[in-house]
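As a representative case, we now present a protein record of this kind.
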Amino acid sequence: MKTDEDSGGMWCLVMFDLPVKTKRQRKVAADFRNLLLDMGYCMVQFSVYARYTPTQAGNRATVRAIKENLPSKGMVRILHISDHQWSSALRFSSMQRDESEETPDVFTLF
């Protein structure tokens, strides 16, 4: 499999705000989260899910599936960033910088 030498891999981030006031809205939001999990995304924070692939092209099919299953209400944003950008992000927990090495919860079969 060819990798993107410039980036060392790509992360696809899906961020969303969906209404959850009614039982139906909560079900739609849960179904959307489950769709992301089924496609191999992992939760980074509430309403922020990420998936790593060796190239940006590896995310095309999942982005297409997300577009086809967008909830009718709410906002969804899809962003691609390089593995280098992901690894250089600052992370804080309880006002303390988290400098532990973060490894993705990704399982790849070759």
Remarks:
- The first strand starts at residue 10 and ends at 17.
